[in-house]
Design goal:
single chain; flat; mainly alpha; 59% helix; 2 helices
C-alpha cells in the first residue's frame, strides 16, 4: 500500500469506528469494536490491505458440501 492509501484507509477506519461505537448498545459491543479497530489499525500501519480478499488461497481446509 502507498502512504496515501494507508492514510485514507486509517481515516476510513476511524470514521467507521466512531459511527459504529455511537450506535453500539452495550459495553461489550463497544469493546469488540475497539478491539477490531486497533487490530485493523495495526495491520494497515504495517502496509497490509485489510480489504484484499485472499479467497481461501493457501488454505489447508476444504469446504465440505459447498460444491467446491
Amino acid at each position: 500500500m502507498t502512504e496515501q492509501q494507508i492514510k485514507d484507509t486509517l481515516s476510513f477506519l476511524k470514521e467507521k469506528f466512531d459511527k459504529e461505537t455511537a450506535q453500539a448498545e452495550t459495553g461489550l459491543e463497544k469493546k469488540m469494536l475497539e478491539r477490531e479497530y486497533y487490530h485493523n489499525f495495526d495491520l494497515v500501519r504495517q502496509g497490509i490491505n485489510i480489504f484484499e480478499s485472499k479467497g481461501g488461497q493457501n488454505s489447508d481446509y476444504e469446504c465440505i458440501g459447498c460444491g467446491s
